[in-house]
Structures are given as structure tokens and as C-alpha cells.
Specification:
6% of the residues lie in helices and 37% in strands. The structure holds zinc ion. The site of zinc ion has 4 residues, from loops.
Length: 332
């Protein structure tokens, strides 16, 4: 069940996402953070080869002039304003090949703290201006898309706390910073934080009435509104439905099909690409005495990140346990 106010909005969002899903691939880059309210606001680099670019405010520029705060040349990445020490996520699976984290979190200077990740498609991503000791990974470490790899800061040539995110590729035999906006033409899944979902529907949006000592089957569907494919067959990044408030709480209603006392189920499908719909089917078994209960759940990308619960419509299952006369219980 979700709050009544959220249903219309969630459904409208789900429809718009579904129509946008066709162009998306499963192995592309996602935004390197989790907070969906973060957006470009310092302006983005324009590729001087084309002088034609849509900026963060959806304004199309067709000249080669500088428009400060909108588009400009001579800058090699995308700047995302965010508070210092905000979590930074790997934008794709890869291997950490370099890092530095010795400058102060807001130490101004020629150079700043960074993490550099190499990806299987031959490209690299750079996460720059990090905080002191802001790397949560080590050189040589394998990272998964969406993994928390660093904490942001304002080290180096930084005039306001932000993440400088940069993509690099080999062009004409040498490493080159490429314009991520321009590169959207071959990274078809940009502009999405890794883990985001919206409520779509469930098998019973009212109260589940369960006879004591019996099990009912419940399912819920969420739209994958994030940038990472959901899977059920790998360890890291496998998306599961776990108990919430507090997280990993032992449930009184776990059934035989639950993977653990706090994991109700993994996503049913092998893969749910961005824009797709994931279904989560699980049993609810009543051992508790007759009465009224409520079970909140949240999605978890295993080992990586809990989803934002309010964006799931604060998903929970109201439950009423009733007497089961077969077991000869006395009336209470
Ligand atoms: Zn920058």
C-alpha cells in the first residue's frame, strides 16, 4: 500500500518512464551520485567540434560563444553542485586505476583529490574535487556500477562545493577528455542516478487478511526509474525487497520462500533494465496472534545502496491476522 496522494503521481511518472525506456541499453553510464535532486547548474562543457548543444535548462545553443553558467569551452567535465562529503557512486562497473586523497576537503590549490576508474568499453571516468581521505576504494579494486566509491569535497581549483565528473576516451592514440554531453550519442543511458524506483501496483493494495498459521502470496511492482539494471542472479547489485523501519528487521511474517528473516524476495525477473517493471512476489505467513499489523519494506541493491523509501510511495503491507478455527483456538 502507498499513501493515497502518491498514486496518481507515481502512475504518471511510470508511464512517462516506460515510453522513454526503448532507447536505453543495459550497460551504459549512470549519474555518479544517488540524490536525484542534484543537477547541473554551473554550466556544462560544449564540444567545440559542434557548437550545438542543449544545456541543463533545456536551452539549445547554436553558436560557439561562451554563455557562462550555461555552456562554455575549455572545461573538460560536468560539474554537479553538492554539499561536501556527499556520496559519490561509480557510474559503471570498472576497476580503480588511480586516486589521490591527501588534500584538505576544501583546500584550494592547483590539484585536488580524485578517483579514476577504468571501464571495459575502453573509457575512463574521473571523480574530482573529493574530500580529505575521500576515496572509499583502493587502486586495483573492482567496483560495481552504483557502488559508493568516494565522498565529495572542494579540493583543488574549486569555487563552490561540487563534483567534477569527467569521461575520457582514447582518440587518435591518446587519452582525451571527451564531452559527456556530446558522448550521450553513444552512451544511451545518461542522466539517471543508479538506484531509483517508483511504485506501480500490487496484488492487494488494501489490507491482507490472513488466517493464523496460514500463508498468503503478495506481489508488488516497481518501475526501475534509475540507471542500473536490476538483477536477481548475482551477488553485488542484486535487487531485493527487505524489511524497513528499521532496515534488516526480523519480520514476524516471514514465509518459507523468504531468503532470510529480513529478505522477503529477490526481484522475480533475471534482468529489469532502466524503464522496465520489476515484480517482487513473496509469501506472508501469520504466526502472530490475531490483531492488526503493518510491515514496511524497501528495495536494496545488495551491498550497494538502499533505495529512497518515500520515492517507493513508502511501501508497506497492512495485515490483519484472524483466528483459524481449524486449530481450535479459543475465542479471544
Ligand atoms: Zn569541473
Amino acid at each position: 500500500m502507498i499513501g493515497r496522494m502518491c498514486i496518481g503521481l507515481s502512475f504518471a511518472l511510470a508511464v512517462s518512464l516506460a515510453s522513454a525506456s526503448r532507447a536505453l541499453a543495459t550497460d551504459d553510464y549512470t549519474l555518479p551520485f544517488y540524490d536525484p535532486s542534484i543537477s547541473l547548474s554551473y554550466g556544462v562543457d560544449r564540444d567545440p567540434r559542434i557548437c550545438y548543444q542543449r544545456d541543463w535548462a533545456n536551452v539549445l545553443w547554436t553558436d560557439c560563444n561562451l554563455h557562462y553558467g550555461r555552456v562554455y569551452d575549455g572545461h573538460t567535465g560536468m560539474d554537479y553542485p553538492m554539499a561536501v562529503l556527499s556520496p559519490i557512486a561509480a557510474s559503471r562497473d570498472g576497476t580503480v586505476i588511480d586516486l589521490f586523497e591527501g588534500f584538505g576537503t576544501q583546500q584550494f590549490g592547483t590539484n585536488g583529490n580524485y578517483v579514476l576508474v577504468s571501464h571495459a568499453d575502453g573509457r575512463r571516468t574521473l571523480y574530482y574535487h573529493l574530500g580529505l581521505n575521500g576515496a572509499r576504494v583502493s587502486v586495483g579494486q573492482t567496483v560495481a556500477a552504483g557502488q559508493w566509491i568516494a565522498d565529495s569535497g572542494c579540493s583543488g581549483q574549486c569555487y563552490g562545493a561540487h563534483l567534477h565528473f569527467e569521461m575520457r576516451a582514447v582518440i587518435n592514440g591518446r587519452w582525451t577528455s571527451v564531452d559527456p554531453i556530446f558522448e550521450k550519442r553513444f552512451t544511451t543511458n545518461p542522466g539517471r542516478v543508479p538506484f531509483l524506483a517508483t511504485y506501480l501496483r500490487e496484488s492487494n493494495s488494501g489490507t491482507e487478511v490472513i488466517k493464523r498459521y496460514t500463508t498468503v502470496t503478495h506481489w508488488v511492482e516497481f518501475v526501475n526509474a534509475g540507471g542500473r539494471t536490476w538483477r536477481n542472479n548475482i551477488g553485488t547489485g542484486r535487487v531485493l525487497l527487505g524489511t524497513w523501519n528499521p532496515p534488516t528487521r526480523d519480520s514476524k511474517f516471514s514465509a518459507l520462500d523468504w531468503p532470510s528473516s529480513w529478505v522477503a524476495t529477490n526481484v522475480d525477473q533475471n534482468a529489469v533494465p532502466p524503464g522496465g517493471v520489476g515484480r517482487f512476489t513473496f509469501g506472508l505467513h501469520a504466526e502472530s496472534p490475531p490483531g492488526v499489523y503493518d510491515e514496511p519494506f524497501d528495495l536494496l541493491a545488495n551491498s550497494l545502496r538502499w533505495f529512497d523509501w518515500p520515492r517507493l510511495g513508502s511501501f508497506h503491507v497492512p495485515i490483519q491476522v484472524i483466528l483459524n478455527s481449524r486449530f481450535g483456538e479459543p475465542q479471544e
